[in-house]
Design goal:
Layout: E1 21-25, E2 37-43, E3 46-53, H1 61-65, H2 74-77, H3 85-100, H4 106-134, H5 139-159, H6 179-203, H7 207-213, H8 221-227, H9 231-235, H10 243-246, H11 267-294, E4 314-322, E5 325-333, E6 341-345, H12 347-353, H13 355-359, H14 364-374, H15 378-382
Antiparallel strand pairs: 1-2, 2-3, 4-5, 5-6
């Protein structure tokens, strides 16, 4: 067995001497999802330890927020989880609205929910598709990415952007659902379900897929809670926690939907949670759209908010159930038009801290499966 190789790029100091090999994975590597770096020690193909290094994409977003007005900061939230930028926009808008003590009109709430659930579907489609690619199953990616582009088309119709959306504003939403949505949604709903069914038939009971995902990176509920897991990662471990149900915001308490959970917290359960959640999002959109259509045409979309926003002195925290889990904004106001402090709680940050424990004892190839299944978005992780 080769002795451990010391590498000059290991920032935590020289590796311990032993019959292990120090292996850097990332930050520039086609299998890494963004600028991520993991320093591993391996015994052959088995991972003895893994240390994720966080911060390569740090842009100082929170510090920038202290030097921008409340309205100016909104487009920066797009660049957190850019796979579902609308959820970031709404989470921040809700936090500022909470600081102002206002609630937006119901019609705007319904429109926000429709757009957020579309973004959730798109985010899950990216994860499932990329997970398949990383494990050697390319075909589902094409089924799912076509549907994601259809969702992005709706975003473009409504607010002119596909990826980094800047949807809505503090106080509500500027525009009604586009007329083309009324014709497109029934057809698109069916095509999303068809793509999911095709993916399910190709993967779920595929012997190779099952071998590569069942029991891989399994995590128990107690450990997940101790590490601060939320969202699909926590629900995959069997914990039925969803802020849309447990701490409802907007009008989520008026909708009938289920919260899927797993049992083993492994790659397979994380995959299945996303597959099942896409169907639940479709149900929510259908209900929200029906309620939206029942609203009077002249129902307001906006709450009147001053152009220069100056929340009263104090501090608030507000969180939503983003596709990755609990996405929260802490805002401290000193009574001026700029926040004294902004702190973001990104869900994948808590999960990525546990990465070493998730992959310990697994194979190197399982490290890539783990990374894909937890949906680490570097823009959200490092900020």
């Amino acid at each position: 067995m080769a002795k451990e190789i010391e590498t000059v790029c290991v920032t935590t100091g020289p590796a311990e001497v032993g019959d292990y090999v120090a292996l850097n994975i990332g930050p520039i590597h086609p299998a890494m999802h963004g600028t991520l770096r993991v320093i591993t020690r391996t015994d052959g193909e088995t991972i003895i330890s893994a240390e994720p290094e966080i911060g390569y994409l740090h842009r100082g977003v929170e510090k920038l927020g202290e030097n921008l007005t409340y309205r100016q900061f909104l487009p920066l939230t797009d660049r957190l989880n850019y796979c579902s930028a609308i959820c970031n926009n709404v989470a921040y808008e809700l936090a500022v609205e909470k600081a102002l003590g206002i609630e937006v009109p119901e019609k705007a709430q319904l429109l926000r929910i429709i757009m957020m659930e579309l973004a959730r579907i798109a985010d899950h489609q990216v994860l499932v598709g990329i997970l398949g690619v990383d494990l050697g199953a390319l075909t589902p990616f094409f089924y799912l990415i076509i549907q994601r582009e259809e969702i992005y088309e709706i975003f473009e119709w409504h607010h002119g952007a596909r990826l980094t959306n800047s949807m809505g504003t503090i106080g509500g939403v500027e525009a009604e659902l586009p007329d083309r949505f009324h014709e497109k949604w029934p057809k698109m709903r069916d095509s999303i379900r068809k793509a999911n069914d095709e993916t399910d038939r190709l993967l779920t009971h595929n012997r190779i897929w099952m071998d590569r995902t069942i029991g891989v990176n399994a995590f128990c509920a107690d450990d997940a809670l101790n590490w601060g897991f939320t969202g699909p990662m926590l629900r995959a471990c069997g914990v039925k926690r969803d802020l849309r149900k447990d701490e409802p915001y907007l009008m989520y308490d008026k909708f009938d939907f289920e919260v899927p959970t797993g049992k083993h917290g492994d790659v397979f359960d994380r995959y299945m949670i996303r597959m099942l959640e896409m169907e639940e999002s479709i149900k929510i959109i259908d209900q929200a759209y029906a309620m939206y259509q029942d609203m009077p045409d002249d129902a307001p979309l906006m709450k009147k908010v001053p152009k220069i926003i100056k929340p009263p002195e104090g501090q608030i925290y507000h969180a939503i159930e983003s596709p990755n889990g609990e996405l929260g904004f802490f805002i401290k106001s000193d009574g001026t038009d700029k926040p004294y402090r902004i702190k973001i709680r990104p869900p994948c940050y808590m999960v990525y801290q546990a990465f070493g424990e998730l992959v310990q004892g697994e194979m190197i190839s399982d490290l890539i499966a783990c990374l894909s299944s937890i949906n680490v978005i570097a823009g959200e992780l490092d900020r």
